[in-house]
Amino acid sequence: MEKNLLFALDIGTRSVVGLVGEKVDNSIQIIASHRQEHRTRAMMDGQIHDVPQVAAIIAEVKNALETSYGPLKKVSVAAAGRALCTIQSKAEIEMSDRGVLTASDEHALELAAIQSAQHKLATSNTISDPASYYCVGYSVVSFILDKTPLKTLVGQRGRKATVDLIATFLPRQVIDSLQSAITSVNLEIATLTLEPIAAINVLIPQTMRHLNLVLVDIGAGTSDVAITKDGSIIAYGMVPCAGDKITEAISQQYLLDFNVAEKVKRQLTGNELSTITLTDVLGLPQEIAVSEIIKNIQPHVAELAQLIAEQIVSLNVTAPQAALLVGGGSLTPMISEALAQCLDMPAPRVAVRRPDIIEGISQIPADLCTPDAVTPLGILKLSASRTLNFMNVTLNEQPLHLFNLGHLTVADALLAAGIDTRSLHGKPGLGITININSQTNFFPGTHGTPSLIELNGQKAALSELLQEDDIIKVTKGTSGTMPSLCLSDIFDILPSYLISINEKPYEISPIITINDELAKPDAVLADRDQVLYRIPSTLEEVLGATGNTMEVPPYHYIINGSDREYSVWRKYTINGNTATATSPVSVNDQIMISPLCEPTLGELLGLNNDEEHFITVLFNKVKCSIPLRRYTIIMNDKVAQITDIALNESIIHFSSTEQEHPMISDVLLAANFNPKTIPSGSIVKVLLNNQPTEYTSLVKNGDEITLVVS
């Protein structure tokens, strides 16, 4: 008999209702019920705020029922639609080789659609943390067999079967607080559903769902909405506002304790009192007319009705054919009239419903034929049907309660625990890119280690199926590391070699720079480093490595008032052979560098001794060159000759004159004839080609000039 007992709890914002029923054939017979109100506002808007207080009330209800019917271990519950998220999903199966479909096949198809909805939620951007949401119920929209809509697939044959359903999800916080309150009183959740799902299964059977109906469960903290149309449930919704809004309005208006205001609200319906006597928080007694209180709460009732109407229109687009109100808040004065007005519907089409007759539940006691008993009766009814239940496993030594969607795997457990399977595998370490001598080189990081998943002490895959009380242990893999490289790790360092420069020995070592800074072979490299590596192998490179640069600073002069630079070069030999900057140098080579030759004034000024600029004559039987261009050079305020060294930083004044036919006097100057050497009183005769002539006579190439002194 114990196996046929069903225990249902409706944990509401205002009270906790417990029902015990017995499964007899295809019906449930109610054998006990108990209601206990919260002593404090331990729940608000359908969310448990004080778990110990709620657990204490659950314990009282449980103990009252156990007194007559023995220990109760498992319970069916429903969650309010606070922060509800709904996903419409579809699944299909090929059934050509399945034969006649069974109830198990149909249920498996439904669960496949739920898992598809979970995937949609996980990949959507509608919520920030999809892994923190539980599936708390679903409603089938339609079954289709080979494009033909059916009420059920059981007993059918065909090629392809499809199910469309609406899966509902709630945040983990809502479910975890509910789970915590229940487990703290030594109960285990057998099945879980959503409050509007439970309510609609009581009041709107399949035979009524072709109508566009709205069920509104107005509780204390939330108003849950469910809509039917075209033979199925098409939407669920929730308004975070309900009967407590009216209670708070009364409390504010008359300065009443919340619990006192709640009692006043309940006295507004179902009695013939014309006045209500109350005591406010100041201890002052008041006697207030019922009509006055109703008038004062009317704006708040209208506001609540407007919020519910907006949710209905948001889900249904237009006003429905009728609205059915249940829950304790549905007894609020004028709520049905206000909702009809907001929906622009005839007042009779919005009505409060009571669970007088429920298919599948027999002999409903009179005390449960009230609007607020609809949801607990629905929870009890669904506890005997195929609905969501829990599977208990342990993950990394922490208990984990999974909604048993059928064929749960290790991956499902990780998803429920908020563990991203992609994060389990160690990622490869980041690589680094090094530019070596203008060529890009990539060096990968180390590989990460794989994760280890153990199921009951044995290595397992993510696809491994779970059983009740399985123990899962997950060890995350470690990520790889970025490579740590030095220069000697990425290329062979060439050995040094010996040479001599001007008979002095030198050791030529490789030149290494990292980001233009000199570095050693053991220097550690970083990503994006620019490495230059070479060993000097030409004369210019070798001289640069030994501090004997080939470049000589240019000489600087001021010539006729203008700045001028003049470059000179040393002469180089390798093993006695003339060498240039690009000449190769190898081990034991002997390099000689000539001293620097300073420029002459002639070299600086570009004056040369080409024969075309002179004529040659015989002067006193000696050859003499007569310049056709005459120069005047002043260096640092002193007369200078073109053969003089042009001192660095000198100031030079230079001029020149040209003559086509020199004279005898030019010959005397070119021959450096000094008139002072002629004795006083002597007679001087000048002969040109043995003929007497004057000092101003012109001469030409090959002439003979004789100077006779007597």
Q: CATH architecture of the largest domain, please?
A: 2-Layer Sandwich
> Taking all residues together, what is the mean pLDDT?
84
CATH topology of the largest domain: Nucleotidyltransferase, domain 5
Instruction: Evaluate the radius of gyration.
Output: 55 Å
Class based on secondary structure composition and strand pairing = alpha+beta
Q: Write down the domain tally.
A: 4
Residue windows where pLDDT falls under 50 for at least 5 positions? none
Fraction in helix = 10-25%
Note the overall shape: elongated
Number of helices: 14
Q: Which CATH class of the largest domain is shown?
A: Alpha Beta
According to DSSP, the number of beta strands is 44
- Any idea what the CATH superfamily of the largest domain is called? ATPase, nucleotide binding domain
Q: Which percent range describes the beta-strand content?
A: 25-35%
| First-last Cα distance | 171 Å
Largest sheet: 11 strands, mixed
Domain SHS2: 6-203
InterPro entries: ATPase_NBD, FtsA/MreB, SHS2_FtsA
Protein name: Cell division protein FtsA
Organism: Pelosinus propionicus DSM 13327
Can you walk me through this structure?
By secondary structure, the chain is of the alpha+beta class. The protein folds into four domains: 85-386, 2-Layer Sandwich (Nucleotidyltransferase, domain 5); 393-475, Roll (Ubiquitin-like (UB roll)), CATH 3.10.20; 484-597, no CATH class; 601-709, Roll (Ubiquitin-like (UB roll)). Helices cover 22% and strands 34% of the residues. The strands form nine sheets. Strands 1, 2, 3, 6, 11, 19, 20, 21, 24, 25 and 26 form an eleven-stranded mixed beta sheet that branches. α4 crosses α9 (374-383). The longest helix has 27 residues, at 290-316.
